[in-house]
Amino acid sequence: MDLEIDIEAPWPAATDWADLAERALEALTEVAPELGNPRLITSLLFTSDAEVHVLNREWRAKDKPTNVLSFPMIERADLLALAEDGPPEMLGDLALAAETCAREAAEKGISVEDHAAHLIVHGLLHLAGLDHEISDADAEAMEALETKALALIGIPDPYGDRT
């Protein structure tokens, strides 16, 4: 998959967000190989809460910012059947909100980088047609993939504090 990445303020320039996104994607393709199809393209926007708020209101009728928005452009069955040869295929768009990501990371006592990596993995799985809101079983399956992918890049289980 090719990631088209755009990084806007207020994401701190001290972190190589594009490299983080590429490492998260590479790890994810180890546990969700359908995302490794070379024909796939995904746009990833690192932006502000204000921009995500506008997108969330416009596209989801939710008048608030959120940590990550995903806009899938291919059905899961089509993704799974997609041959590796052929023209580029847009998987979808992701948008991450800087201030929400930073606040949530602080609340969890983790780095913003680790939380952003988790949100990228989470958003990519949504683009791949997985959805934690369908059922508990779907949530557990999605969380297991996230946990495995993040472990591959040295990030602890983001759900490990559950009892």
UniProtKB/TrEMBL annotation:
InterPro entries for the chain: MetalPrtase_cat_dom_sf_prd, YbeY
- What Gene3D superfamilies does the record tag this protein with? Metalloproteases ('zincins'), catalytic domain
The residues the record assigns to binding Zn(2+) are 122, 126, 132
Quote the Pfam families the UniProt record gives. YbeY (PF02130)
Give the UniProt keywords, A-Z.
Answer: Cytoplasm, Endonuclease, Hydrolase, Metal-binding, Nuclease, Ribosome biogenesis, rRNA processing, Zinc
> Where in or outside the cell?
Cytoplasm
Q: Which Enzyme Commission number(s) are on file for it?
A: 3.1.-.-
Asked if the keyword Cytoplasm belongs to this entry, the reply reads yes
Named cofactor requirement(s): Zn(2+)
State the free-text cofactor note.
Binds 1 zinc ion.
Q: What does this protein do?
A: Single strand-specific metallo-endoribonuclease involved in late-stage 70S ribosome quality control and in maturation of the 3' terminus of the 16S rRNA.
Give the family per the record.
Belongs to the endoribonuclease YbeY family.
Provide the protein name: Endoribonuclease YbeY
Q: Which organism is it from?
A: Novosphingobium clariflavum
